[in-house]
Amino acid sequence: MSHSIKLAILGLGTVGTGVINLINDNLDELKRRSGQDITITEVGTRRHRDDIDPNIMQSSDLMAIAASDNVDIVIEVIGGTTLAREVIMHAIKNGKHVVTANKALLAEHGNEIFAFAEEHHVHVAYEAAVAGGIPIIKVMREALAANKIEWLAGIINGTGNFIMTEMRDKGRPFADVLSEAQALGYAEADPTFDVEGIDAAHKLALLASIAFGIPLQFDKVYCEGITGITLQDVNYAEELGYRIKHLGFAVRRDGTGDDAATGIELRVHPTLIPQDALLANVNGVKNAVLVNSHPLGQTLYCGDGAGAGATASAVMADVMDLVRVLGSKDADDKSNNGHHVPHLAFIPEQLSDTPILRAEQMTTGYYLRVHAYDSPGVLADITRILSDAGINIDAILQKPAHKVGQVPVIILTLPVVERRMNLAIEKIEKLDTITDKVVRIRLDELA
Predict the structure, then answer these.
(1) Which of 96, 203, 245, 286 is flagged as catalytic?
(2) Which of 223, 258, 326, 443 could join 272 via S-S bond, C-beta 3.0 to 4.6 A?
C-alpha cells in the first residue's frame, strides 16, 4: 500500500535547493523505486522564496518545523554546530527521522546525537556528510560488513585536492591556486577548514568510527594542513616517483615491530604516495576513499565530493532508505528500528575502547629536505644520525645549490615510529653544517 511520506528541508542554500530540484526532476523514479509518494511539505528558510511550490509551507521557525505533525523526515542542511544540533535533537525528541549533511556536527556531537536517536527509536542518516555523492558510508556500513577493515586512506576535501593538482600540473604556487579556488567557489573566504585539514578530519572521524567500531573522537585526529607545501617539494617528489596528496588515514596497528604501539592512527596530512597509486591519479576537486579490508583487499570509491547534485544525491539516498521503512506495514511500530544498520555500523554496546595513538606513536615513511653547506662529511653526519635512531634510508637525492655554497639534500625513509624521527631531526638541526629547519612530509606506499 502506498503512503505519502512528508519531508521538511531545513536550509535552502546550494544543497537544500539541490534536493528540491532532484525530487522535482526524478519524482516518478523515486516513487517507482520506493513504492511511496514523496512530498516536500515544509521548508525552513530565512527569507521567502518565490521559486518554491506555493503548496510548500515556508518558515524561519526551524524548531516548529522539526516538531510538525506534517513532517515524517527532517533534512538538515543549514550547517554549523549550534542551531543545527538544537534542531536535530528537537526533531528526534518528536519522533522524526533525520537526514543530515553536517559532518562537523556529527564529528563533534555524534555520540550524543546517535544515542538520543536510539533512545527515541529513530534514525539519523548521514551519507552526505562524507565525500559528497560517493556512497562510502553505505559501503562501509553494509557492503563491507563481513570484512575486517585494516586501514583506509582518503582524499576527502576537494579544495585541497584541487590546490595540490594545480600546483603539480601547472607549477603554480599555493597562494595563487588558493585565490582561484576561492574565486571558483571551491574554497570559502576563510579557507582554514579546507587547507588546514579540519574539514577532512571531521570526515575521517566518522569513517574511522564505522571502520573500527569506536566512538567518534574528532579531538584525537592529528591534523596538518597544506599551507607549507612548496613547488620545490612537489617537483622533488615527482622526480622521485611520488605525488603529494592531502590525505586522511585511519589505520589499525597491532603493536608489532620496534617501539610500535597497539591502537588506531587517525591522521590528516600531506603525503607522498607513488605516482602509479590509484589515489595519486584522483585529481581536481574529486574525492576518493581507498579501503583495505580482509578478505576483500583494496577497493577504491571515487566521485564528486561536493556540489548541489552530488550532495543532493547522497541526501536522497538516505531519504529513500527511510521512505521504504516508513511505508512498510510495521511503520507504526516505533520500536521497529532493527532493520537499520547501527549508526556507526556496530551495535552500540559493542563499541571498542581501542586507544587512539598519539602523533609520536604513529608509524610512516618520511620525505626529508635538508639544506646544508656544501662541505665534506655533511651527508655522512646526516645518515649517521638517522642510522643511530634506527631509521632506514630508502633513497637520497642531492640537488644543485639554490644559494652559493648551500645544497638541498632529499632523503626518503622507510616507515618509522615518529618519536624516533623527532629525535633524529632535532639532532640534525643542531649540526653546524645545517642552514635551515628540516622540511618533513610523511610518505606512504599504500600497500
Answers:
(1) 203
(2) 443
